[in-house]
Design brief:
flat
Length: about 290
């Protein structure tokens, strides 16, 4: 079976290799074609059986504007250092000095397992001391987003060696830090090797081919054009009958030697009647035929 592709589709086909998936976004970037045209090619290829469209849902992380570079619980932990406990009143004073929010520290510190409150004492856990010299998984992600603004979580898991579940646990409810959005990622895979049966179809000649005479050989690749195909019926605009009468009347007066001038909508009776030598008792001067202001 011979497969005929136009120049645009052939350009997309060259980006694909048999047995290897390629992201739709990469193909769009390489070909500089709009997504609608690439998807039209993909749908046609899948319909004919030589192309496969893969869809995968991924979480994309986008850094919120104004997100802090350091989390409040991290600032407090580094400030306390090796201190394992202090009274709640001392804690409140320390938090106030640092300009932090007590509620956020207690909420997310407990979520991480860093802080506890026992008998009106604020306790720094052994788990927190482990993270005193190293960063938690979500902190690594936030640090990366400070430079890149957005990224897919699966890519960060491999690149930063973080745990996906841990990142989602700590960031999914912190909307003030990041926005997590599920995106459908499409990729294309060539499932059949059709290069042997592929024919490139052209729709135009280059100036160089016309000048050198190479157009004679290029004619074999040109897409046939059927001039007998029915075209879309067009209904051009028409002049309104009343407007047509106005134009014909204007033209007649101009040919007779009259001049066209611009005047206001409201004119004095002198110019409308007396200047035209209309008799004083002419019926057109009556209120039934003339609107007086």
């Amino acid at each position: 079976m011979e497969l005929v592709l136009n120049e645009r589709d052939y350009k997309i086909f060259q980006c694909l290799q048999k047995g290897t998936s390629k992201a739709l976004a990469e193909i769009i970037q390489e070909t500089s074609l709009p997504q609608s045209q690439v998807m039209a090619f993909a749908v046609q290829g899948e319909k004919e059986g030589w192309l496969k469209i893969h869809e995968e849902v991924k979480e994309e992380l986008m850094l919120r504007e104004g997100a802090p570079k350091k989390l409040p619980e991290r600032i407090l932990l580094e400030t306390l250092g090796d201190t394992q406990s202090l009274s709640m009143s001392d804690l409140a004073q320390k938090v106030k000095q640092l300009g932090l929010n007590m509620k956020d520290i207690m909420k997310w510190g407990r979520e991480r397992g860093w802080f506890e409150s026992l008998n009106k004492e604020f306790v720094v856990t052994e788990e927190a001391l482990k993270y005193l010299k190293r960063k938690d998984d979500d902190e690594k992600v936030l640090e990366y987003l400070q430079d890149h603004e957005r990224a897919f979580l699966d890519e960060l898991v491999e690149k930063l060696e973080v745990r996906k579940e841990r990142v989602l646990q700590l960031l999914k409810r912190r909307n003030e830090l990041v926005k997590i959005k599920e995106r459908k990622i499409r990729s294309l895979e060539l499932v059949q090797d059709i290069k042997a049966s592929l024919k490139k179809e052209r729709s135009q000649l280059t100036p160089e081919e016309i000048e050198s005479g190479a157009w004679r050989e290029a004619l074999k690749e040109l897409k046939p054009y059927n001039v007998a195909l029915p075209a879309k019926v067009t209904y051009p605009a028409k002049i309104h009958p009343l407007q047509k009468i106005f134009q014909e009347t204007r033209k007649a007066f101009l040919h007779m030697g009259f001049e066209e001038i611009v005047s206001p909508y409201v004119e004095t009776a002198f110019w409308d009647f007396d200047a035209l030598f209309q008799p004083q008792d002419h019926p057109a001067r009556d209120m039934q035929d003339t609107f007086y202001l």
